[in-house]
From TrEMBL:
<dbReference type="GO" id="GO:0000506">
    <property type="term" value="C:glycosylphosphatidylinositol-N-acetylglucosaminyltransferase (GPI-GnT) complex"/>
</dbReference>
<keyword id="KW-0812">Transmembrane</keyword>
<comment type="similarity">
    <text>Belongs to the PIGH family.</text>
</comment>
<keyword id="KW-1133">Transmembrane helix</keyword>
<dbReference type="InterPro" id="IPR044215">
    <property type="entry name" value="PIG-H"/>
</dbReference>
<feature type="transmembrane region" description="Helical">
    <location>
        <begin position="6"/>
        <end position="24"/>
    </location>
</feature>
<comment type="pathway">
    <text>Glycolipid biosynthesis; glycosylphosphatidylinositol-anchor biosynthesis.</text>
</comment>
<protein>
    <submittedName>
        <fullName>PIGH acetylglucosaminyltransferase</fullName>
    </submittedName>
</protein>
<dbReference type="InterPro" id="IPR019328">
    <property type="entry name" value="PIGH-H_dom"/>
</dbReference>
<keyword id="KW-0472">Membrane</keyword>
<feature type="domain" description="Phosphatidylinositol N-acetylglucosaminyltransferase subunit H conserved">
    <location>
        <begin position="30"/>
        <end position="99"/>
    </location>
</feature>
<dbReference type="Pfam" id="PF10181">
    <property type="entry name" value="PIG-H"/>
</dbReference>
<dbReference type="GO" id="GO:0016740">
    <property type="term" value="F:transferase activity"/>
</dbReference>
<keyword id="KW-0808">Transferase</keyword>
<dbReference type="GO" id="GO:0006506">
    <property type="term" value="P:GPI anchor biosynthetic process"/>
</dbReference>
């Protein structure tokens, strides 16, 4: 009977590990910004599964570095601010990026500058009808 309990515990642990690797453990995060199309955010899990989110550039109001206080330390993270379709001055949603990898501030600043360059090109480019 003890071996049956031990076998069940090992089996449940293995199933839990597989679920963790497939749905929770993010191995890599990437951001692709194309000024004329939008922003693609991809998360690669440890199991090889990928999750991709695409945000149309027309929805993007701005990209900012935000800060939060967590466990007595300041954490910086990159956010995409989406504009409200009904109110052009309003914000409908804030989408945080790189939540699993938590890059350092100097890395976030580089990504932020690149995103701002692309957003500025989009604003200064003539709008085609």
């Amino acid at each position: 009977q003890n071996s049956m309990v031990l076998s069940a515990a090992i089996f449940i642990t293995l199933i839990g590990l597989i679920i963790y690797l497939h749905f929770v453990k993010i191995d890599q995060e990437s951001l692709l910004v194309i000024g004329s199309l939008g922003i693609q955010v991809t998360s690669s899990y440890a199991s090889g599964k990928e999750s991709t989110t695409f945000i149309e550039m027309g929805q993007v109001k701005d990209v900012v570095i935000n800060e939060a206080i967590h466990m007595q330390k300041v954490i910086y993270y990159l956010c995409i601010i989406l504009q409200d379709p009904e109110d052009p001055q309003g914000v409908s949603e804030v989408v945080p990026l790189f939540q699993s990898s938590k890059p350092r501030l100097d890395c976030l600043i580089e990504v932020y500058k690149s995103c701002q360059e692309i957003l500025e090109q989009r604003k200064t480019a003539p709008q085609s009808s």
